[in-house]
Design brief:
There is one protein chain. The protein has helices spanning about 1-50, 55-90, 115-125, 125-150, 205-270, 275-310; strands at about 105, 155-160, 160-165, 170-175, 185-190, 325. By secondary structure, the protein is mostly helical. It has a two-stranded antiparallel sheet. The protein has a two-stranded antiparallel sheet with strand order 2-5. A two-stranded antiparallel ribbon has the order 3-4. Strand 3 and strand 4 (about 170-175) form a beta hairpin. The longest helix is centred in the C-terminal third of the chain and has 64 residues, at about 205-270. The two termini are about 40 Å apart.
Length: about 325
């Protein structure tokens, strides 16, 4: 029952992460399409300018080269987003080739759980750690059983005797005796110290006990290793989350600034007040910052799922599936 619940929770988590991975790929394709649209506008503009000898052929070719580069990026991102639909279809049991319209957007929410609380929860609930503890207990029981089986066992016998009848010429007598002339009850304890001298489990070849002892030691070392690995992975994942939570607001502000800068640069180039290289730099900077923001938002979610897995819980405390997304257009 517990294994079934674990598999169900994992399937739910896989569907959620695949959904937002697909959402991120679609957003990246949309960003590439936006860049292609602006580059296409400048390419067509420069083609007309070239006809009127207002720009050099070199400038026209550079604008065409930039347009083709962004066309390539758009086709690649569009293909990745379209083909990734199959991953979600596989999890949902839909037919291959199904295309999904995603109506929910990702919510960026900082984690409130302190590292100490996360570590405390993980030490008690982490699945790998629980398996290691269970393995250690099993190996300890096996060693104790082998140790007991290898010990000599005492043998206790109790002689209660019996009634004896004696018949003579003059009388018949009934006596309770353990042996002739002795009416005391005998309690005898002996030590059964019989072992096989050779072979597995023999007195001179205690391989079974040594194997169990070694198995117990290995299980203990695995448990210690799992504890150290868990603390290390938890700390790394938590530190990365804190880094992303600092970077995402900065990138949001940078996107706004790049968008405004690009608007000014585009208008200046259209009026012939700036060079093509400035337009290309401004557009590439805007697209690069937008892509980085979307990738960081998605990684932040994936890192939270990873942290929850290390803690042995479906979601980070204080969060649930309804807090991960919102309808597009909502603030």
């Amino acid at each position: 029952k517990e294994d079934l619940k674990t598999k169900r929770d994992q399937l739910e988590k896989d569907i959620i992460t695949t959904y937002f991975n697909l959402l991120t790929l679609k957003k990246l394709a949309k960003i590439s399409k936006k860049g292609l649209r602006f580059s296409s506008f400048i390419y067509r503009l420069n083609r007309e300018r070239l006809n009127f000898k207002k720009i050099t052929e070199q400038e026209f070719l550079e604008s065409r080269s930039h347009y083709l580069e962004l066309q390539e990026l758009f086709q690649e991102s569009f293909y990745k987003a379209r083909s990734f639909n199959n991953n979600l279809a596989s999890l949902l049991g839909d037919l291959p080739g199904t295309l999904y319209v995603l109506k929910s957007d990702l919510i960026f929410k900082k984690i409130d759980t302190p590292l100490e609380t996360a570590l405390k929860l993980s030490l008690g609930s982490n699945p790998d750690l629980r398996k290691a503890r269970s393995s250690l207990k099993n190996s300890q029981r096996e060693y104790e059983k082998s140790y007991r089986d290898n010990l000599p066992l005492p043998k206790i016998s109790l002689n209660l005797g019996s009634y004896h009848y004696f018949f003579g010429k003059k009388e018949s007598v009934m006596k309770f005796e353990t042996e002739s002339g002795n009416s005391n009850i005998d309690l005898v304890a002996t030590l059964n110290a019989s072992w096989s001298l050779l072979g597995e489990g023999g007195f001179f070849n205690q391989r079974t006990l040594k194997k169990k002892e070694l198995g117990q030691s290995v299980a203990y070392q695995k448990l210690k290793y799992q504890q150290k690995a868990l603390k290390r992975n938890l700390s790394i994942s938590y530190e990365r989350l804190l880094f992303l939570q600092k970077m995402i607001p900065l990138l949001k502000a940078q996107v706004k600034n790049c968008d405004k800068t690009f608007g000014e640069t585009l208008e200046n180039y259209r009026q012939g007040k700036t060079q093509l290289i400035q337009f290309k730099k401004s557009l590439d900077r805007l697209l690069s910052t937008q892509r980085k923001l979307e990738l960081y938002l998605n990684e932040h979610l994936q890192r939270k799922f990873n942290l929850a897995s290390l803690m042995g819980v479906p979601f980070i405390p204080g969060e649930n599936i309804s807090l991960l997304s919102k309808n597009k257009g909502e603030e």
